[in-house]
TrEMBL record, chain A:
Keyword Transport: yes
Membrane topology: Peripheral membrane protein
Gene Ontology cellular component annotations, sorted alphabetically: mitochondrial inner membrane; respiratory chain complex I
Protein name: NADH dehydrogenase [ubiquinone] 1 beta subcomplex subunit 10
Family assignment from sequence similarity: Belongs to the complex I NDUFB10 subunit family.
Cellular compartment(s): Mitochondrion inner membrane
InterPro entries: NADH_UbQ_OxRdtase_su10, NDUFB10
UniProt entry keywords in alphabetical sequence: Electron transport, Membrane, Mitochondrion, Mitochondrion inner membrane, Respiratory chain, Transport
Record lineage: Eukaryota, Metazoa, Ecdysozoa, Arthropoda, Hexapoda
Automatic annotation (TrEMBL), chain B:
Keywords for the protein's UniProt record, in alphabetical order: Electron transport, Membrane, Mitochondrion, Mitochondrion inner membrane, Respiratory chain, Transit peptide, Transmembrane, Transmembrane helix, Transport
Name of this protein: NADH dehydrogenase [ubiquinone] 1 beta subcomplex subunit 5, mitochondrial
Transmembrane segments: 62-84
Gene name for this UniProt entry: LOC113400456
Protein family per UniProt: Belongs to the complex I NDUFB5 subunit family.
Location in or out of the cell: Mitochondrion inner membrane
One Gene Ontology term, aspect cellular component: mitochondrial inner membrane
Topology in membrane: Single-pass membrane protein
Pfam families in the cross-refs: NDUF_B5
Length: 159, 190
């Protein structure tokens, strides 16, 4: 929305299109603003905050409870990280859609940031399969570190 | 709800209706045209067609039973959305522990979470207790199995794999043997 004064819009085509749109929109908006909103009660809902529990590397091997809790925490963390990756990707895509055809230069920082995040996500959660576990991710990290010890670093993020 | 299917009925029948006023012959069948008594105004011809009564009755029953469910449910949903409305997302105030239904947005979801479902934390802790108990049982069984294996290996413990000696049958055998010897002697021919 452009701030400040601008001359009144007397574009006939735009007013016609707005009128067509408002045949559906105006009664719905009226109903919402005059009937629904005043009658609705205001009361809160919250997002659940989970406490941090010991991760899988801090559990004994035969401790099923610790394993179960670490597993659930792993799944929650993976969901959160996937959403973060999603947001970064959407930022880049919005920039691209807005800035086309100069998107390759203008949106480059967003692209770099997204690519770095994607690589980090893949290092931690990628290729674990459908039955991914906290233990499997931990073992993946162990194998990666052993491979890196023998063959040198894999990427900038794992140095 | 006869009215719902009745709306389409008069339109549908007029599509089938044959509006010829005099008797006519189709494929060697002599059709006569039914004449209705016009008390005031009415249709002048009766449609001669196979009965569509079962179809109309089916539609009536379908609409009736659908409405029996849809109208109360629709009324409840309308009431909750207009007069109660969904909740606003707020940060958790300091030192306050929200109840487990306050983590949902829509009033019907909150109702279900509050009065029908169990507290998720309770379910979590119940499950944790269950797997802990099963894990303890598994450990006991594994230990027992290990002990039996060792006993089988070493044969050194008076428990499993121990064959107790009972001399009662040895005595009976010996007694029988002695008796036979006394009777027969040691002259035994094969």
């Amino acid at each position: 929305m452009v701030q400040g004064d601008h001359p009144p819009d007397d574009n006939v085509f735009r007013s016609f299109i707005n009128a067509v749109y408002n045949t559906i929109d105006a009664p719905v908006t009226w109903m919402r603003e005059k009937v629904v909103e005043p009658n609705q009660k205001k009361y809160p809902w919250y997002h659940k905050q989970y406490r941090r529990v010991p991760t899988i590397d801090q559990c004994y091997t035969d401790d099923v409870l610790c394993d179960y809790e670490a597993n659930l925490q792993f799944k929650r963390d993976r969901a959160v990280d996937s959403e973060i990756l999603n947001i970064l990707r959407m930022r880049f895509e919005d920039c691209m859609m807005y800035e086309t055809p100069e998107h390759l230069t203008v949106c480059k920082p967003l692209w770099e940031r997204y690519k770095a995040a994607e690589e980090a996500w893949f290092i931690k959660y990628g290729d674990l399969g459908a039955y991914a576990d906290a233990k499997k991710a931990y073992m993946k990290q162990k194998h990666r570190m052993i491979w890196e010890r023998r063959n040198g670093p894999l990427s900038d993020q794992t140095k | 709800m006869v009215s719902w299917s009745g709306l389409g009925r008069s339109f549908g029948t007029s599509l089938f209706k044959n509006n010829i006023k005099t008797p006519f012959v189709i494929q060697n069948v002599n059709f006569s045209v039914g004449k209705t008594l016009n008390a005031g105004h009415g249709h002048k011809t009766m449609a001669l067609q196979p009965s569509r009564w079962q179809y109309h009755k089916f539609k009536d029953m379908l609409h009736y039973y659908l409405m029996v469910g849809l109208i109360p449910v629709g009324a409840i949903i309308f009431y909750t959305n207009v007069f109660i409305g969904p909740a606003q997302l707020t940060p958790i105030p300091e030192g306050y522990e929200p109840k487990h239904w306050e983590y949902h947005r829509h009033p019907i979801t909150r109702f279900i979470a509050r009065y029908i479902h169990n507290n998720p934390q309770q379910e979590y802790e119940k499950f944790m207790h269950y797997i802990d108990e099963e894990a303890q049982k598994a450990k006991l069984r594994a230990l027992e199995k290990e002990v039996h294996k060792k006993m089988a290996e070493r044969h050194d413990y008076q428990a499993y794999y121990y064959r107790p000696m009972v001399n009662k049958y040895h005595r009976i055998n010996k007694q029988t043997g002695d008796e036979m010897y006394e009777r027969i002697g040691d002259d035994v021919k094969d």
